[in-house]
Design brief:
Number of domains: 1
Transmembrane segments: 40-61
Strand content: 5-15%
Structural class: mainly alpha
Distance between the termini: 16 Å
Keywords: Membrane, Transmembrane, Transmembrane helix
Radius of gyration: 15 Å
Number of strands: 2
Strand order of the largest sheet: 1-2
Order of helices and strands: HHEEH
Protein name: Transmembrane protein
Length: 66
């Protein structure tokens, strides 16, 4: 199903923001040797960004369904 209008534009913007956040220069900022909550900082950053992107896309889709 193709989304049109503002919801479609927001999904495209979310894709580009996600592509930027999961790119090398941004992730290299968190590539540290010290752990955070017992996990390497890079892994924590990846999981947090991944969860945030899922939340943003779900919010866009649910808001557009109304």
């Amino acid at each position: 199903m193709m989304r049109t209008g503002l919801a479609g534009q927001r999904l495209v913007a979310a894709f580009f923001v996600g592509a930027l956040l999961f790119n090398y220069p941004v992730l290299s900022l968190f590539d540290r040797s010290e752990p955070f909550i017992g996990m390497p900082m890079l892994w924590v950053c990846l999981f947090v960004l991944w969860a945030m992107m899922i939340g943003v896309v779900a919010w866009i889709v649910e808001r557009g369904a109304r």
